[in-house]
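PROTEIN DESIGN WORKSHEET
SECTION A - STRUCTURE
LENGTH: 214
TOKENS:
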């Protein structure tokens, strides 16, 4: 059994894990997550899942994987920290955005609605909307910019941003890691994990449209 696990780990490391080999993967993950608040098309979630898959491949390889594989805790912390930093950069830029940004938000019904709902949620001491938006496509960007543009207090926004980043990072890494554990460390496992991440995003977007979040 141990031999099979080692062979599986080596196979995946060569096909998927090689993309995430070496300590630099943490910096790549962090940079991707930080920037996708400005460029939501960046596949940061896919990268995090791939790194989690590589970690699962190495964990079962009984020392036969010839390169360093990612540590899941370090991956989670890297992705979560970068998520919060990206949120804060967007928040501060929007805070200083001035009239041009205000006009851009006013022209968009989606941004105006998001700003109003976010303001109400934070004013009531709740911020589940921030957490939910982290999973929705472009939701993180909308919430971060709207919080800054509305000059919401950072102490109201930051704790929820941290919870959102940690929740998203842990979920994404877990998808890659346990997907490989359950389905085998293959491209199929990675594909199923990515589909699950997109499914969570679709569900979050649906909930944000359908009902108010406190």
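SECTION B - SEQUENCE
RESIDUE ASSIGNMENT:
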């Amino acid at each position: 059994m141990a031999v099979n696990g080692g062979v599986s780990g080596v196979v995946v490391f060569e096909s998927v894990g090689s993309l995430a080999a070496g300590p630099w993967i943490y910096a790549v993950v962090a940079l991707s997550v930080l920037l996708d608040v400005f460029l939501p098309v960046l596949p940061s979630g896919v990268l995090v899942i791939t790194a989690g898959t590589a970690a699962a491949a190495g964990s079962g390889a009984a020392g036969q994987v010839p390169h360093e594989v990612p540590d899941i805790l370090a991956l989670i912390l890297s992705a979560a920290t970068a998520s919060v930093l990206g949120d804060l950069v967007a928040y501060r830029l929007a805070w200083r955005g001035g009239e041009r940004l205000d006009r851009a938000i006013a022209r968009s019904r989606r941004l105006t609605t998001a700003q109003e709902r976010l303001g109400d949620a934070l004013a009531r001491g709740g911020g589940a909307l921030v957490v939910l938006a982290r999973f929705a496509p472009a939701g993180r960007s909308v919430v971060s910019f709207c919080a800054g543009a509305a000059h919401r207090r950072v102490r109201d926004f930051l704790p929820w941003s941290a919870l959102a980043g940690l929740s998203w990072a842990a979920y994404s890494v877990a998808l890659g890691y346990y997907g490989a554990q359950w389905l085998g460390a293959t491209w199929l496992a990675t594909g199923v994990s990515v589909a699950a991440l997109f499914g969570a995003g679709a569900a979050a977007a649906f909930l944000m449209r359908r009902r108010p979040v406190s």
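SECTION C - NOTES
Residues 1-16, 61-66 have pLDDT under 50 and may be disordered.
DSSP finds ten helices and no strands in the chain.
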